[in-house]
Amino acid sequence: MKKNEVKVGSAYLAKVSDKVVPVRITGESRYGGWDAVNEKTRKTVRIKSAQRLRGLANLSKAEVQAAKTAVVAAAGGESKSAKVAAWRKEAAEKAAKPDAELDAAVKAADAKGRAKKAKAAKPKGERKPGCLDAAVRVLQEAGKPLQCGDIVKTAIEKGYWQTKGATPAATLYAAIIRECAAKGAKARFRRAEVKETKDGKAVTLRGYFTLADEHAKKSQ
């Protein structure tokens, strides 16, 4: 036979394992040729080429019905496909119908979410001063350069700043450095050189900061 004469679903006489047996074509094989079912043994076989087919097979009604059942089984089962189709239809019908109970649950959940969000939102008001604002105030009052440790100590004692951090001086130092790097000449802080005499020699102390001229005056 020729390839274009082979039809899926039809029964043919085919040479399988050196024997000519009736087979029903179930579909094209991904490996080439066709997948088929042996009408006698109900086993699946692969017909590699049309040359293995000897023509249409003459089957009785019982054999035809049995072949159809075998084809359905090889394809995955008619009952399974029918169940899937029925389930999809049922799901679509339920989705199209209004569900008062579901709608009420959704509204309640939305209301609860909005209430929780409103509760969690911080009330608008005066912003609490951070470590940099507190440092500016301390330096203004001191009128001289200070190290971060002294600034933090004074700010906490006077209630200008509150923190639970383990290293507040390091936190302030890092914040001042970030502001200086980000704002440049517009930064509120400047590094200051403080010198003291030790053993008759002038020593420059590091880690001191002062305020830029426009921020040095204490606000009234």
Structural summary, described in words:
- The chain contains seven helices and eight strands, in the order βββββααααβααββα.
- The radius of gyration is 44 Å and the shape is elongated.
- α4 packs across α5.
- The strands form two sheets. Strands 4-3-2-1-5 form a five-stranded antiparallel sheet, with helices on one face.
- It is α+β, with helices and mostly antiparallel strands.
- The protein starts with 10 loop residues before the first strand and ends with a helix.
List the helices and strands and how they pair.
Layout: E1 11-16, E2 19-28, E3 34-38, E4 44-47, E5 53-56, H1 61-74, H2 78-96, H3 100-120, H4 131-142, E6 146-147, H5 148-157, H6 168-183, E7 189-198, E8 201-211, H7 213-216
Antiparallel strand pairs: 1-2, 1-5, 2-3, 3-4, 6-8, 7-8
Total number of distinct structural domains? 2
How much of the sequence lies in strands comes to: 15-25%
Lateral arrangement of strands in the main beta sheet = 4-3-2-1-5
Whole-number average pLDDT? 80
CATH architecture of the largest domain: Orthogonal Bundle
Kindly report how far apart the N and C termini lie: 107 Å
User: What's the count of strands?
Assistant: 8
Described by strand count, sense and barrel closure, the largest sheet is:
5 strands, antiparallel
Structural class: alpha+beta
What's the helix count?
A: 7
CATH topology of the largest domain: Arc Repressor Mutant, subunit A
